[in-house]
Amino acid sequence: MKKLLFMVFILSVFGGLKAQQYFDRPPEISISGQNLEELQRAKISNPNDPGILYNLGLKYLEQGSYRDALVEFKRANQIRPGSAILLAKVGETYNKLGVADSAVLWWEKALEQHYEYIEVWEKLVRYQPEYYFNLGVLYKDKAEEKTVRQLAEQAIYYFERYLEELPEGMMVAEVRSAKQDAEFFVRVFDSEQKKEERERAQATLRAQKEEELLAERDAFRTQKTRLVGLGFKTFNPSSAITFDLKAGKESLTNSIRLKSLTNSFTEWVLGGGLIRGPFIFRGGIMLGSSSVKQSQFPNDSIFAGDTSWVDNMEIKAVNIYQLEGEALYNFYYMNPLVLYISGFADVGYMGITQSEDLFSSASLFGAGLGLGIFLRMESWLIDFNYKRSVLGSSSGGMVVLAVYYKF
Length: 407
Hints:
Helix 1 crosses helix 10. Helix content is 42%, strand content 31%. By secondary structure, the chain is α+β, with helices and mostly antiparallel strands.
C-alpha cells in the first residue's frame, strides 16, 4: 500500500497536467503577448475590456504586485461575472497575499461555475482537506467514464489523504466505500479476464461489507452495553377495571368502572437496561394520569330515589403507576436500524384523585408481547414500539416512544 501511495504521489506531482486533459476546462481568456507598459496604455483606451484587465492582472501577479493584480482581476470579474478563470485568479491572488479564508471563498465560487476545474480543486484541498473526498470522487467518476487507470489511482490517493488528515471526519464511511470502488476499478482494469475478476471482486466486496456489518453489529452488542432513557407511553386498557368502595364507606354506587372515567393514559417512562449479545434486558418506571369524562358521583346512600339534592363526590383524575420488566431480542441489524421483538411483564396500580376518600385503588398486573425498532444515531437510540398485554388486569395496547443513551 505504501508503494502504491508513493507511486500515486509521484503521478500527482509529475503527471497532473496529463490527467487534467480528461476534464472539461472552463472557457479560456486569451493571453496577450504585450508587456506591462503596453497593457497599462491599452487599459487607458479600453478600461472595461476584461481581457486587458485579466492580462494586466497576470503581469502584476508575475512581478509580485499582488494588490494591483487583485484590483484588476476583481474589476474584470465585475465586467464578466461568472468566469471561473477570473474567480480562480482572485482566489490565487488572495492566497499570495496570505489571506487564506478569502482565497478559499473565491476558489469555491470558481468551482460553482465550473465543477471540473481541477487546478482549483488541487489548491483548495490544501486549506480544506474535507474536499479531498469531492476531488477523489471526481477522479473516480472520470476514471469510470474514460476507462483510465491513472485517474483511478489519483482518486485512491485523494481518498487516502482524506483518511490521513481527517480520520474522524464526517465522511469517513463514504470515503472508505468510494476508495474500495476505485481500488476495484484498478483491479478490474489490470485483469485480463475482467468479467471473472469483477465477479470475484464484487463477491469479495460484498463479503467485506457483510463482515463490516457483522463487526459493527457485534460492536453494538458488546461495547457500551448500558442504556438509560426517557420517553412516554400511550396505554389503552381493555380489561374491565373497577374501583371498589372502601369498607365502612357509604355511596349510591359500590364501584366505579374505569371506562366511565377515561379510555387512555399518557405515561412518562424512565428506564434503563443492559445489552447481552442479541438480547436487551430493560426495566422502567411509568407514571401517568388522565382527566375524567364524568367528574361528579352521588355519595349519599340514605335515599336512592331523587338524588338531585344529594351531595356529590368529585373525581378529578385517574392516576397510574407501573413497574415493567422487558426482554428484547434483536433479530435484525442494519445500521441505523435495529429491529426487535419483546416479551414483558408489568405490575402497578391505578388510583383516582377524589374529593372524598371513598374508593380504593385498583391493582394492575399483566404480561404480553411487543415489536419495535431502534433508530441508531451514534450513542443515541430512538425507540418506537407497539406492545400488547394479553394477560392480567393491565391487558390492552401500548405505543411507546423513547430516547435512550448507550454508554
